[in-house]
Amino acid sequence: MTVEIRMLGRFEVLVDGTPGPREPWRRRHAAALVKVLALTHRRTMHRERLMDLLWPDLSLEEAAPRLHKAAHYARHGLPGTEAAVVLRGDTVALLPGVPVTVDVEEFETAALAALGPAADGTAATALARYGGTLLPEDLYEPWAATARDRITGLHQQLLRLDGRWEQLLEADPADEEAHLALMRGYLRAGDRTSVLRQFERMDRALRGELGIGPGPEAVTLRDQALAELPAVVRPRRPALVGREDVQRAVLLALDDVAAGSGRTVLLSGPPGVGKTALIGWARGEVSGRGWRTGAGTAATIEGAWPYAPVLEALADLCRAHPALLDGLDDRYSQELDRALSLRGAVD
């Protein structure tokens, strides 16, 4: 008989490859008893230490009967193993003498092999053994914190070693190296808009979590992207042919805005009909009236998120005219921050 204990991404116990009954694990302390022992070297712990972890607010006399009860129910979750949890003398042991594999141990072994000086293995091999956050159902249990931090640290080192920058940012949004790697990649690909958005994403994460701004290299990459933006995103007045009706509609909308009425103009059409040229003309008209403009486009980094161009236009406007933010009412600043945080969640 073999037993497999899984704790990465979920908790599950398999006996000879088959999941056992789940009813015993609905009892919180029975499951916690098995989890704590499975995370312990040789799956053995001193009885008093175990009781202190599971029932920190109880005396040893009060915790002892609870330990026996938890062990009783835990044995029901391991059919065919009468000695699944053994209380003998001062120790408590899980499955002594039974072949047991624990996914946490297997991941750690593979990770250390990939990260060690001998590099006996690859990051991809180790990452394939990572099933997710350690015991996500026990995020607030103190007894799981140290092991979770250790596993999380190894996982992030492997992601860095394998160049999985987006996954690394999902785990740690303030990882500056990951942001820089993505910015360099976008710049090499000629995607300047994504460079700028990645910079803003980095700026929000660093200021929100660490209270600092991006470093010199990030600023240099941003400035390079700004300098290399294609001319089509800058205000200009191209010559248009056969678009008088659309131009007239835009000019009427601008007149309404000048009179104090807000207006929205939506432009649609198949590729190649001249939408970009018309938008460039409209921006030229707006700039000619002395108004300030911002432009935003869809980019790879945003995926299918529909409001990314709106935020990009706001960012473009603020980059060109940073003084605009100084007089902004606090409630509007809060709304902008909320929108940006929602965008970050989608990223």
Q: List the strand order in the largest sheet.
A: 3-2-1-7
Q: Largest sheet at a glance?
A: 4 strands, mixed
Helix content: 40-55%
Class derived from helix and strand content: alpha+beta
What's the helix-strand series? EEEHEHHEEEHHHHHHHHHHH
Distance between the termini: 45 Å
Total strands? 7
* C-alpha Rg (nearest Å): 29 Å
- Number of H- or I-type helical stretches: 14
Which regions have little confidence, pLDDT < 50, spanning 5+ residues?
A: 231-237, 343-347
What average pLDDT do the residues reach? 84
Beta-strand percentage range? 5-15%
Shape estimate = elongated
How would you describe what is shown here?
This protein is an alpha+beta fold. Helix content is 53%, strand content 7%. The chain has 14 helices and seven strands. The protein has a four-stranded mixed β-sheet. A three-stranded antiparallel β-sheet has the order 4-6-5.
Structure, briefly:
With 347 residues, the protein is of the alpha+beta class. The chain contains 14 helices and seven strands.
